[in-house]
Design goal:
The chain is mainly α and about 240 residues long. It has 11 helices and 2 strands.
């Protein structure tokens, strides 16, 4: 469509594309800066940036005698499939700075060498971010969030939700609060994720329960919890109960 309306040929070039794309990017940045007072400005500027990206693609196709749009489509499918190319999940769960990125931006730093004994070496940094992607802490215990743990967590959540349904004498706000926290964790676990924040939020919700209700839940978890996460939560809650 863009090539039909704004065709690329021997009289057009990438230099003009650069000028126009830079101009539109500047306007988009201004739109982001003023987003709180004029959100519609962003909506009007973002399509302009996209349009000039299409101009680049169409010029590229003309210069290389390619079918219009085909190379870009191939690259989009390759670079952005239906899952993250790093962690292979439909919703990316990579750490904020991926180990690959650390390796790329610090490729000239020798492995195992720290500057002045104060900074992490590249090797240490990679291990640190790898750990952050795989481990969480629950009541002082380190939990490895692997596939088996996720499956056990989802099973434990269903068990606890069933317990809540049977507690007809509990206050509605207690049941709703715990169920909401569990529901949030269950959605993440279904995506293969377990975050420290989710665990901390659930722990805070459980700790805020009336002591007698919390005691019932602790007993239930001690008898039935299959996941390391809920077993550790039970230990932490037990310390409060006693």
């Amino acid at each position: 469509m863009f090539n039909d309306i704004y065709p690329r040929d021997a009289s057009t070039d990438h230099e003009n594309n650069v000028h126009r794309l830079t101009e539109e990017l500047g306007e988009l940045c201004e739109a982001v800066r003023t987003l709180s007072v004029a959100p519609e400005y962003f909506v009007s500027e973002a399509p302009d940036v996209f349009a000039w990206l299409m101009g680049f693609a169409n010029q590229f196709d003309f210069d290389n005698r390619e079918s219009t749009g085909v190379p870009l489509e191939r690259q989009m499918i390759d670079q952005y499939p239906s899952e993250c190319r790093k962690c292979r999940r439909q919703i990316c769960k990579c750490p904020p700075i991926h180990p690959d990125t650390l390796g790329r931006i610090a490729k000239e730093a020798p492995l195992g060498v720290a500057v002045g004994g104060r900074l992490f070496s590249l090797q240490e940094s990679i291990q640190l971010f790898k750990k952050s992607a795989e481990e969480i802490e629950v009541a002082g215990r380190t939990i490895y969030a692997d596939e088996n743990e996720m499956k056990s967590i989802r099973n434990d959540i269903q068990q606890v939700l069933s317990l809540l349904e049977k507690q007809t004498d509990w206050q509605v706000e207690v049941i709703v609060g715990v169920a909401a926290a569990l529901g949030g964790m269950e959605r993440l676990a279904a995506q293969g994720e377990l975050t420290q924040r989710t665990i901390d939020d659930l722990r805070s919700t459980l700790e805020a329960m009336p002591s007698e209700k919390r005691t019932v839940l602790v007993g239930f978890l001690n008898n039935l919890a299959a996941s390391g996460t809920f077993q550790a939560l039970a230990v932490g809650l037990q310390a409060i109960v006693t």
